[in-house]
Amino acid sequence: MRILFRWLPLVLGLVALTPPAHARDIVRNGDTVVVALSGEISPPLHLFLRRAIKAAESAGAGAIVIEMDTYGGRLDSASDIVGALNRTTIPTYTFINTNAGSAGSLIALATRHIYMSPVSAIGAAAPVLSTGADLPATEKEKTLSYWSALVRNSATRNGHNPDIGEAFMDKEKEVKIGDRVVHAKGTLLTLNAQEATEQINGKPLLADGLADSVADLAKKAGLKGDLVAIEPSGFERLAFWITALAPLILLLGIICAYLEFKMPGVSMPGIIAAICFALFFAGHYLAGLAGWEVVALFVLGVVLVLIEILFFAHSTIVVGVIGVFLMLGSLLWAMIDRYPGETFFPTGDMLAIPLRNLFLSLVAATVVIMVLARYLPKTNLYRRFALMTTNPPGPSLAGVPREFATALDLAPGMQGTAQTILRPSGKGRFADHVVDVVTEGEFISADTPITVVQKDGMRVVVKAR
Question: What is the pTM of this model?
Fold first, then answer.
């Protein structure tokens, strides 16, 4: 565990070089934040946009402008982005620079204002398979029903015509304004810039107006402050994979920390555990979920556990239990998606996925640790390292002739006292001689009465009396 504690702060220090803090530094109160949304809509793009939104809200930005040029992508990622945009309190704008196709059109509807370049288009958002083929009939009906409801709700929330958004997805949807049929059934709706900005009954069909650039949009919309662009980084993709694999990373970290306890002569498990926990916090920091406060909470928990093990030696469990709860709390806190201005205590929806991930990791780790506790002491690797501890002062049987050890008659049932902490290996005193001993996996504090349960050559297995 000392190896884990020594390496953890060092590896966590790498997080200080990441871009989210820089984004918060360059945005000032009243600025207009410009976020480029281009290429395929994917999970890393959602992480980047969420980070930009949180940076803008933390800095008190006046508006967020999404500069869009995409033919679409994954609907699940588009749904996550729509959710992030609908949660922000800052005025949001979309500038369609050429294309807002498929899932891009759904994201545009989640902003309060839409401007389009003179040569651009928006629409055609029908859900399809990853191969581009149509969905099977039953699945298509279910998918359209769900996404139509989501799009209608998002469009209505942001002041857009919900029928327009539904017609982007469903070719059987007719769009009618007053007595005029804007779009008939039979095809998916796609609008060019002139059609989207057409005034019908004194109101534009969809877009507020035309703009040649983001700067032109800012001028026409009356946005104040400087235009500040937040760029995506390669770390977003790394953050996506780390957060997606969070349960597995936690599982490996917990198991390696356990092995560090069980095999104190081996440093590699502690190093791997430190790297796993560092990757976990670094990934959630890059994803805009965790800050330095959760890292400090985790390190404090580790310190309390170390104090319990090294100083109290199981005479009390209060310090260790508090440390474990702090560590678990920090792991859970790091996975909660909290936006600036929200209440300190998370809601049930915010806790659902983090609790699931933490629960799965703990259950899996418990199962693996139970298996290791049963079979690890019987392996050659464990026997090789189990007795690698520092000899205390006084005579020891480690280097005496075998016949002397035999004369001591360390048979099962012989009673003695733990000379050192057994975690699980250490020294035991029998008949005024100090002997290398090992438990079956339990930790035994110094000066505890012990009993020999098995003797295999020079290997003496004991338990507490």
Answer: 0.59
